Known about the structure:
The protein contains three helices and twelve strands. It is globular.
Amino acid sequence: xxxxxxxxxxxxxxxxxxxxxxxxxAILDQIxxxxxxxxxxxxxxxxxxxxxxxxxxxxKSINLKMKGDKxxxxxxxxxxxxDGTTIYNFDGVNTISKSNVSESDQTLSPQKLLSGNYDKDxxxxxxxxxxxxxxxELIPIDKRKSFQKVTLVIDxxxxxxxxxxxxxxxxxxxxxxxxxINYSAVLIDKIFLFDRAxxxxxxEIFD
Length: 207
């Protein structure tokens, strides 16, 4: 599940690393405004991972529910729940690990990847664009981040992320494809609250 945090984006030399491309910012700001204005978001995502030699590390299908700074991410039996303050990571078997949202700052949360709100954490530049889509490269300002580079493909007509390619520090890559996204989902707050009773009795919780 860490793939969505890599995914959940930087190897090539970026000569404009100290700059923020105004055209890229305008496109990203449109996405951010759309996400911020949504009462609830449902997303279906496919992840394709490869190592530095191009060998497949597997594919995953992920379903994500988002509301403000809260989210519930599921992949098979595993899930990550965030109530806005605490993140609960269930391994699908017998362990739940807890962490504070602030502790995940070195990774890519679903909100960061989908929201277009990259101003604080990234420098960015447009690699190419036409009337329908734009390809934008993100370089993290903080070099302690767990990833090197993120390349986004934005659907300009829908103001939404289409795909992202995340390159980590080990030169492994994760290709993220947004299969579907619904910005008008009705999501009750209760689904983002941690409920110990939902999990098997033998599950251990670690801070």
